Automatic annotation (TrEMBL):
<dbReference type="GO" id="GO:0005615">
    <property type="term" value="C:extracellular space"/>
</dbReference>
<dbReference type="GO" id="GO:0043236">
    <property type="term" value="F:laminin binding"/>
</dbReference>
<keyword id="KW-0430">Lectin</keyword>
<dbReference type="InterPro" id="IPR013320">
    <property type="entry name" value="ConA-like_dom_sf"/>
</dbReference>
<dbReference type="GO" id="GO:0030395">
    <property type="term" value="F:lactose binding"/>
</dbReference>
<feature type="domain" description="Galectin">
    <location>
        <begin position="2"/>
        <end position="132"/>
    </location>
</feature>
<dbReference type="InterPro" id="IPR044156">
    <property type="entry name" value="Galectin-like"/>
</dbReference>
<protein>
    <recommendedName>
        <fullName>Galectin</fullName>
    </recommendedName>
</protein>
<dbReference type="Pfam" id="PF00337">
    <property type="entry name" value="Gal-bind_lectin"/>
</dbReference>
<dbReference type="InterPro" id="IPR001079">
    <property type="entry name" value="Galectin_CRD"/>
</dbReference>
Length: 132
């Protein structure tokens, strides 16, 4: 597990930009945004080859131990051993995920007014985190 950030205070209209390096032999990595570790508004999980998925981004939400319905994105702009910049834009009803050459939205299923929590896990090394 990588660094854990708390008390981010991300509100609608604000953005979190994550830069980092993907491991050369990556299977998958995760970025979580939410209230805390038990209430995740966005579980962002690019999978190179994990859980039966190949080159697929799987997104979900989690309320305590209860996962929501998985959302799959077919566009996969990640490369093993590469660096990547991902921006999460917080809106009133969803989060816009900005990837290299692609973007999509994921609904704020938990109706979180503020996103205070961020962490990374898996085959990813966080290099910088900025928000505005």
């Amino acid at each position: 597990q990588g660094p854990v950030c708390t008390n981010l205070g991300l509100k609608p209209g604000q953005r979190l930009t994550v830069k980092g390096k993907i491991s050369p032999n990556a299977k998958s990595f995760v970025m979580n945004l939410g209230k805390d570790a038990t209430l995740l508004g966005l579980h962002f999980n690019p999978r190179f080859d994990a859980h039966g998925d190949v080159n697929t981004i799987v997104c979900n939400s989690k309320k305590v131990e209860e996962w929501g319905a998985e959302h799959r994105e077919a566009v996969f702009p990640f490369q093993k051993g590469g660096t990547v910049e991902i921006t999460f834009g917080v809106n009133q009803n969803d989060v816009t995920v900005h990837l290299p050459g692609h973007q999509f939205t994921f609904p704020n299923r938990l109706n979180l007014p503020v996103f205070d929590y961020f962490d990374t896990q898996g085959d990813f090394t966080l290099q910088s985190l900025s928000w505005e």
